[in-house]
Amino acid sequence: MAMDEAILWSVSRGMSPPTLRLYAWEPACLSLGRSQSARAVDQENLRSLGYDLVRRPSGGRAILHIDELTYAVYLNKSDPIACGGVLPVYRRLSAALLAGLDDIGISARNDSNVQRCAVSGPVCFEHPSHYEMTVEGRKLIGSAQLRKGAGVLQHGSLPLHGDIARICNVLAFDTELDRDHACARVRRSAATLSAVLNREVEWDDVARALVRGFSRELEVKVQFGALSSDERQQVEKLHLGKYANLEWTFGLPSGGRARGEKR
Q1: How far apart (Å, rounded) are the C-alpha atoms in residues 99 and 210?
Q2: What is the pLDDT of residues 86-123, one digit of tens each?
Q3: Residue of 29, 117, 124, 168 marked catalytic
Q4: Per-domain residue ranges for the chain?
Q5: What is the 3-state secondary structure (H, E, C) of the chain?
Q6: Label partner for 149 (CA 20 to 30 A): which of 124, 136, 178, 262?
C-alpha cells in the first residue's frame, strides 16, 4: 500500500508517467477499506493463520489478498483516461480489464446499473459496484478508487483460485452460524478465475493478458520500468509513518494502542 501511494504521489506531480502495476501478496494479507472499522477483524484467527493486516488508502470493504492478482493504475487528472470524474474512469479502466479477461477466454460484464445488495456485510466481494467485473452475476474483480490532489489511483483484486469465502475466517462474527451464512453469501455472490474457467491459470499468464488488454483498449504503449529513487524514498516514508503504524491500521487516536497488540 505504501508503494501504491508513493507511485500516485509521483504520477500526480508529473514526475512519473501513467503507470499500471500488477502484483501479488506474500504473506497473505487482509486489507481494510480506509473508513472500515478494525472491529470487523477476527484478530485471533488472523494471527493463527499468519496473515498480515493493512488499511488501504482507498475506501470499500475488506479483501483477503491470497492466491490473487492485484492491479493498480495511477493517473494524473490531466490524462485523458482520468477525465470526467469517478464513474467515467471506472468505465474506461473496466473496459481495459474486460479486454484482458477476454484474452484469457472469459466473457465478463461491467454493468453500470448495479442494484445494491440488501445485506450490508464487511466483505468486498459480497457486493458488486458500478463497472465492476461480473460473470453470470458473480463478482470477479473488486475495485476501489482514490482521488488525491492531481492524482487518481484505482486498484483492485482478481482472485485466481481457492475458496473465495476464506476471508470469512478472519472476520469477526457474533456466532459461527453467522460466519457460515456469510461464507454462503460470498460463494453465491463471487467467483475465482479458476472456478469460471474450470482450470487454473498461472499468475504470469493473467498478468500478460491484462497488459495486452490495457494496451489494446486504452491505445497505449506499455513499457516496463522500476521505481524511481524518489518513489523508493516515498515508499520508505509511507511505510514507517503510516502503513506499518498501528494508529493508521486500527484507526486509533494518536498515542493509542490496539488491544492484544504490542508496539
Answers
A1: 7
A2: 999 999 999 999 999 999 999 877 765 544 444 456 55
A3: 124
A4: 2-249
A5: CHHHHHHHHHHHCCCCCCEEEEECCCCCEEEECCCCCHHHECHHHHHHHCCEEEECCCCCCEEEECCEEEEEEEEECCCHHHCCCHHHHHHHHHHHHHHHHHHHCCCCECCCCCCCCCCCCCEHHHCCCCCCEEECCEEEEEEEEEEECCEEEEEEEEECCCCHHHHHHHECCCCHHHHHHHHHHHHHHECCHHHHHCCCCCHHHHHHHHHHHHHHHHCCCCCCCCCCHHHHHHHHHHHHHHHCCHHHHCCCCCCCCCCCCCC
A6: 124
What is the spatial distance between Cα 101 and Cα 157, in angstroms, rounded to a whole number?
13
Residues 108, 98: Cα–Cα separation, whole Å? 6
pLDDT of residue 221: 92
Q: d(Cα 76, Cα 223) in Å, to the nearest integer?
A: 18
Q: Which three cell numbers stand for residue 164?
A: 473465495
Q: Is domain 2-249 given the CATH code 3.40.440.10 in the classification? A: no
Respond yes or no: is residue 83 known to be catalytic: no
pLDDT digits (tens, 9 = 90+) for 148-183: 999 999 999 999 999 999 999 999 999 999 999 999
How many other C-beta atoms are found inside a 10 Å radius of the C-beta of residue 87?
12
